[in-house]
Specification:
Largest sheet: 7 strands, mixed
Helix content: 25-40%
Order of helices and strands: HEHHEHHEHEHEHEHEEHHHEEEEHEEEH
Distance between the termini: 41 Å
Oligomer: single chain
Number of helices: 14
Strand content: 15-25%
Number of strands: 15
């Protein structure tokens, strides 16, 4: 688009991302090999169903599943998965969606796993059946299963120490001929998770393709039993080419040939990365930031591994900044706003009033910019009395 970069011509600011692989910030920065493959894919026409099938074989091999599918993001993959569990192999029901009258249209989810992502259930036309409370017991799930139960959704995301774990959920579900869907969108790293959920018996597992894997932001990986992946494909955006008499339920969930190819290349590279070395570098970057910020008055800085899903600590460390209210009048919101208003804008995130720096998406040298900006903010506080 001329001498200026594409974002400069559009007057969109480039951001230093100290949050992580947030979709709202673009997911990830694509590797040159991924970009090259996507450019190559853009130069030709292909049969999209054939491309999906071949990509699915790669996904299946890497995840240990019977089959795989590329969706237009993890959320779309979950919607299609839930829809598949409602319609089964009944073509009339496939054509009936999004009307779920007369179908198994209830999806069980543990209360501790409820969050705004579970709208994938209602988006598919299903009803949410919440079970348990502060603690969920196996009998809570057993008692909720009935002839309207289409699936159990297991969301491996938020802190959830008092839940029924996946292997037990699978056992209960399969004893009652109910499939289990796992939302593992953000559960990479560790890389071993690509195979863990399938190994634990889940019927369908969904990952984000645009987070740690490093594929296009609007891609998702759906893997699992061949039966379910075939139904998902029949609901997907290109099913109309296979003689459906009307646009399929998932017509709006298109994923381009470039995105599918980009995801496949990113996934193949991801499983070959030296993840121990990568995590070591993240840790070193965090250590350096902590050492640079530790003497700033008004804050306490440390390296932490915040806890999430089942109390597990995150694999990638964070810089935690705790404000000393007796020594600073700055709030976390004020600091985040000042960082975002700078040039270049810097995005961090907070939990309660603590601020965190995630090294996952920082490019070389950006840690120095972050340190300088934070020092400047606290120096100005001292001079200008923010």
């Amino acid at each position: 688009m001329g001498i200026l970069g594409v974002y400069e011509e559009l007057k969109v600011k480039r951001i230093i991302n100290a949050c992580g692989t947030y979709p709202a910030l673009g997911g990830s920065v694509l590797d040159e090999d991924v970009l090259s493959a996507m450019a190559d894919a853009a130069r030709s026409f292909v049969d999209m169903n054939d491309l999906e099938e071949k990509a699915g074989k790669v996904i299946a091999e890497i995840t240990g599943a019977e089959a795989g599918y590329v969706s237009s993001g993890a959320f779309a993959g979950l919607v299609l998965a839930i829809a598949a569990c409602m319609v089964g192999e009944d073509m009339n029901k496939i054509l009936q969606l999004p009307n779920t009258e007369g179908m198994k249209n209830e999806v069980i989810i543990q209360k501790q796993q409820r969050n705004y992502y579970d709208t994938c259930i209602t988006a598919a036309g299903a009803k949410i059946v919440e079970v348990g409370g502060e603690v969920t017991r196996p009998e809570d799930i057993k008692n909720a299963i009935n002839d309207k139960t289409a699936a159990i959704l297991f969301i491996d995301l938020s802190p959830q120490e008092n839940i029924v774990p996946l292997p037990d959920v699978v056992k209960i579900a399969h004893e009652n001929n109910v499939p289990v869907i796992v939302d593992a969108a953000a559960e990479l790293p560790p890389v071993e998770n690509l195979r863990e959920y399938i190994a634990n018996g889940a019927d369908i597992v969904v990952f984000s393709g645009g987070k740690d894997i490093g594929g296009p932001n609007d891609t998702g990986i759906v893997c699992g039993k061949k039966k379910w992946i075939n139904i998902i494909s029949s609901l997907g955006p290109y099913a109309y080419a296979r003689s459906l008499k009307k646009a399929p339920f998932g017509r709006g969930f298109e994923v381009s040939k470039e995105q599918i190819v980009g995801l496949v290349v990113a996934l193949k590279k991801y499983v070959k990365i030296d993840h121990k070395e990568r995590l070591k570098k993240f840790g070193e970057k965090v250590d350096w930031i902590v050492s640079e910020l530790k003497d700033i008055p008004g804050i306490r800085v440390s390296k932490v591994y915040p806890r999430r899903g089942h109390g597990r600590p995150l694999i990638i460390p964070r810089v935690e900044i705790i404000l000393d209210k007796e020594k600073t009048k700055l709030s976390a919101d004020k600091i985040l706003r000042l960082l975002e208003e700078g040039d270049p804008p810097i995005r961090m995130y907070k939990v309660d009033e603590n601020i965190y720096i995630n090294p996952q998406c920082l490019k070389s040298g950006e840690e120095q910019i972050i340190v300088n900006r934070l020092k400047e903010i606290f120096l100005n506080q001292k001079i200008n009395k923010f």
